[in-house]
Amino acid sequence: MKSYIKYELPIFSSSLINNPVVKPEDMNIILELTGFDEKDKLKKIIIQFNSVVCYKYTLAGFTPKLYNSYDKIVELKESEWLQELKNINQEKFSYWKPSHYIIYLDEVGMFQFIAKGYEVTEYE
Fold it and tell me: pTM of the prediction?
């Protein structure tokens, strides 16, 4: 299993001013983060995971492996979770062609998404 860094947060998860907001919208899931960057500027980051097949959240104290995902979106290739979903329904898996994305936030935990892709919007 290989991991690839796809996006690095411009803010530090240790500087979040509130808990991340997770909002399902149709087949998408939005993750909203508000915190400070290295120049102490307040920023809001919205990450929308598109066509989400499934997702899970793990508390920081129960996260066994970070996959280099600390304040980053990482894509895992050939993960066990992807393989399990493919074995359950090859036809739908081939149609959706999902990827496995992970992001770990300090003191919050790990979010994992099986989704077709994602989009990021940054606000100052």
Answer: 0.94
